[in-house]
Amino acid sequence: MSDSSKTRLRRTFSTNRVVQEQENERKEKAQHVDKPCHQHTDSLFSSTSGFSNYRGLINLCIVLLVLSNGRVALENLIKYGLLVNPMYWVRLFVFQGPTDWPCAALFLCINVFLLGAFFLEKLLSKKTISESTGNALHVINLAVIICLPAAIVLSVHPNPVFSSMVLGLHTIAFLKLISYITVNKWCREYLQSKKFKKTRLKSTSCLNTADDSKDEAPNGFEEKKYVEYPNNLNLNDFYYFMIAPTLCYELNFPRSARIRKRFLIKRLLEMVILSQVLLGLLQQWMFPTINNSMKPFHNSDYLSSMERLLKLAIPNHILWLIFFYWFFHSCLNVVAELLCFGDREFYKDWWNSQSITAFWSSWNIPVHKWARRHLYLPMVKSGYDKTMSSVAVFLVSAFFHEYLVSVPLRMFRVWAFMGMLGQVPFAIITSKWLNGHLSNMALWLSLIIGQPLATLMYVHDYYVIHHLHADVIPST
Length: 476
Hints:
Layout: H1 3-34, H2 55-80, H3 86-93, H4 101-125, H5 131-156, H6 160-193, H7 198-204, H8 210-214, E1 221-222, H9 235-243, E2 255-256, H10 261-298, H11 302-339, H12 356-360, H13 365-381, H14 386-409, H15 415-421, H16 423-433, H17 437-466
Antiparallel strand pairs: 1-2
């Protein structure tokens, strides 16, 4: 193509572009002239506007939260210096004194009670002993599991943190054994009655059916060969259940096809890192605030006590959230992955709960399933109404909350017990007067204020009894 042809082509393109721009400008002017300036429109913050994109405001709240807590952290560091000392926790958990040795022995002695329950089930399956005799022996064994560690802690006076861990282990074993005993009893009743009850069959997995064996497991999980009673009564099956991250026993658990190494490594890193963050924040943030709160509480200085409570609420809640993720997501997933345990629903979206009952049925699924399966539904089937059954669940939960706090501290103030029972009227009030977002906000407020209040109550009473003329938290 010659230079003159190229020049004419460029001029043609330039002319067309100018004409197109002029036409667009003319249309825009015509639109501005024709379009009315005002029309029926609601403000964006009005509920009738249909607008819902508040991401910028949420980002603002996050920035303000980070800045405000960053200022508090900087103030804490300037006032107290660096308090984090890993050796404090090593001395606390590893280098135990003679008073802690009985608690260490209880970690091993728990196998005596576990094996006792297992062999009782073996005898019952062979009809060597009667059902009434087996039930009586099971009750004695379960009572010893709960009472023996409490008696030792109250008599020996070990470290409260270490003894609380021991009591927690025995509580878990207690709940697991109840489920193990109950499910095996259901299986024996089924075999004796020779009646096929489909609903109970699926819940206990007593026997296998052709339809169930053909079902394919979702999400890469595969079903193993079904086990029937009494073939489940072996030590491998028993200890698998005792270690598995669940409180409800079944003869056939959903199993994953393999161990996902990348997923396991992520959860292990979370366990290690978040545990160090938790311990560090306890030393740096919680301990000084709790120590400084004892004098106003002891002197009944209500305004100062309220100020200390609000100051403690934020770090306490942050630690609680970190602990929730560390335990229910990281730790339980590590155990489940190592055991190829398929059911990973350890929690639901409790943060969206609009009532106390919805929260308690969402944030700790293993306990919720146990309470519903072995306490709530049996009471309903026995003729109790749902309200009475729900109150019974809260009573049992309140007992174990108090058991895990008061016994290690060697004092009985029932603050945890009353706090759990207080959830019942609070749930009734919020369900009657509040709904939607307001009910969710009331739930968050109860979590943020209730926990540090109970913490200060217990620490204050412990301070008065044991450390009236010393620091509440030992020096780190």
